[in-house]
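ok trying again, last paste got cut off:
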Amino acid sequence: MAKFFCAVMTLAFINLPCLVLPPSHEKVYNSKPIDAKARRIIKEFMMAIFQKNYKVYINHTDAGGIVYHANHLTFFENCRRDWLASLGYDGYFFDLSKDGDSAANTHGQGGAVHFVVSQAELKYIAPLLVDDELSVTVDSLTIKPASLILSQSIYRPDSDKPATTGMITLACVRNDGKAIRPYRLPQKFADLMKSLV
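nice, full thing came through this time. structure:
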């Protein structure tokens, strides 16, 4: 009986339908390799917090048609702003009256509270070219009392591997016109961020 059970289980395992493995794997079990487009879709579906496409225009590039290195930061920035806007926030500024702080809002009365980039670490892996349709993602998020640390990636067309990766630290600050000082993340915003991780 035990031998029969082992034989049936072995046959069942061998004849299992194609298993989809994480995008880092080159193949699915018992099937042909996953193509680049499928792996990219799987990666975005399983891992990215936010994803948006952007077109590379000539003004993003140098004389050779390659995106200037500083403009990789621009694509990351645009993606972060679009992500925050999709969550109902005005890019980088907070209206603290929504959190019960009537002394501060986005227009400087009592001090504007917003994000500034305090650290950016980028890794350039492959060039971005004029007319590319880039896929830019927010991959992961670490929440601190007065900052966010975001992992981001840029993908070229039909590629499942990032062309650029970045680790960006956004510090929450309050500008009262006299000084810019660290400020705790507004509570409703912090709660929303925690729900995403």
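cool. The longest strand covers residues 112-124. DSSP finds four helices and seven strands in the chain.
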